[in-house]
Amino acid sequence: MVEHPTAQDRLAELLDAPAKTTGAGYLDVLGDAPQAGPTTGITQRVMRTTLLPQVYERFWRPAFGRLFKGPFGPGMAGEIRRATELLALEPGRIVLDVACGTGRFTRTFGAATGNHGLAIGLDGAPSMLARAVTETTGTHEDGVAYLRADAVEPPFPPSTVDAICCFAALHMFAEPERALDSFARILRPGGRVVLLTSARRDWQPARVVDTAGGILSGQRMFDRGEIAAALRARGFRIVAERFAGVTQIVAGELAGAN
């Protein structure tokens, strides 16, 4: 009887860096490094604690999402639905969920791409990934695999994945521009990216408050339209751009498809 490769086996074949299989059920290319890059502030430090994964998906992320998106922004279920639609996910596709946390988005992407596709959850925090593996067990696990790696420089060759999601994370990266360069590099022509990140308000008094909040929490406050312009500069056409509170969801399609 011929054994079919697991989702983790298929992920390992895609990588351009050596990976270790961990006892927690995810691959690791960072080894003993405590984190992939420099810590940008208190928010990122909290993300790396062992307690947060226990409450992240059900309490932390929905509560803080509502705080930053305001009363009219989408809830977490709406974010997931919107991301899945904007990425145009289909069975057989390969999708990378950058800064996946406990894997809520990744699991849904795995359901959309099916067992012949692959949904990859990438994060730098071992505690988040261990929780993600536990949450995924028995739920589309044949098409979902997790990876501990640098979100700014995901360890994939050029033109490897069909879609990239990065929600609620880009503003916490030390080098967000380099991350966007990486996303454009590893996407296949015609592939899509969708981002949820900060969006500083235009009204001057609010801009001062937003900027101060970003400095205190270690999060970068992007201007409205800044992310769309950055994607265009890297060869994307903008598929969607939507603002809510101090957040923006921007989706782009990489040029070059036939």
UniProtKB/TrEMBL annotation:
Keywords assigned by UniProt, alphabetized: Methyltransferase, Transferase
One GO MF term: S-adenosylmethionine-dependent methyltransferase activity
Source organism superkingdom: Bacteria
Domain Methyltransferase type: 96-195
Listed GO biological process terms: methylation
SUPFAM superfamilies named among the record's database cross-references: S-adenosyl-L-methionine-dependent methyltransferases
Protein name (Swiss-Prot/TrEMBL): Methyltransferase domain-containing protein
Organism annotation: Amycolatopsis carbonis
